[in-house]
C-alpha cells in the first residue's frame, strides 16, 4: 500500500468498527463500546491530520471520510435509541439531516455537476457534537456517571446543530445548484 492511501485505510477501519460498536451497545458491553467509539473518534482525527499534514488528500478520501462519519454516527444513534438512551425524535432528526444531505448530493451530482465531499464548518461542528454526545452517552452507560444536566445540554446542542446544519446544506447547495444550473444552461 502506498502511504498516500493510509488516511483512506484508516477511514475504512472506522467503517469496519461500526458493526462491533453497535453490537457492543446492543449487548450492554458499554465499556467495550466506549473503547471502540473512542478509537473511531481518534481515527477520524488521525486520518484528517495525516491527509492535511502530508498532502495525502485524495478525491476518494474526500468522499469516504464523511460517509464513514455518517455510517458510524447512524449506527451509534440507532443502537443508542434501541437501548433507550436517545429519544426517537433526535434519531429522526439525525437520520433526516443525513438523508437530505445524501439525496441532495446525489441530485446535484446527477443534474448539475460532480460533487466534492467538502463539509461546511457547521457540518464539521455538527459531526463533532454528535460524536461527543455519543461518547457522553457511552461514558454514562459505562458507569462513569455523566450528570443528567450535561446529557440534556448535549442533546439540545446536537438537536440545534443538526437542524441548523441541515438547513444550511439545503440553502447552500440549493443556491449553488441554481447558480451552476444557470451558467451551464
Automatic annotation (TrEMBL):
The protein's Enzyme Commission number: 2.7.8.5
Topology in the lipid bilayer: Multi-pass membrane protein
Location of the protein in the cell: Membrane
Q: In which pathway does it act?
A: Phospholipid metabolism; phosphatidylglycerol biosynthesis; phosphatidylglycerol from CDP-diacylglycerol: step 1/2
Matching entries from InterPro entries are given as: CDP-alcohol_PTase-I, CDP-OH_P_trans, CDP-OH_PTrfase_TM_dom, CDP_ALCOHOL_P_TRANSF_CS, Phosphatidylglycerol_P_synth
Q: Which family does it belong to?
A: Belongs to the CDP-alcohol phosphatidyltransferase class-I family.
Q: What is this protein called?
A: CDP-diacylglycerol--glycerol-3-phosphate 3-phosphatidyltransferase
Q: Which organism is it from?
A: Chiayiivirga flava
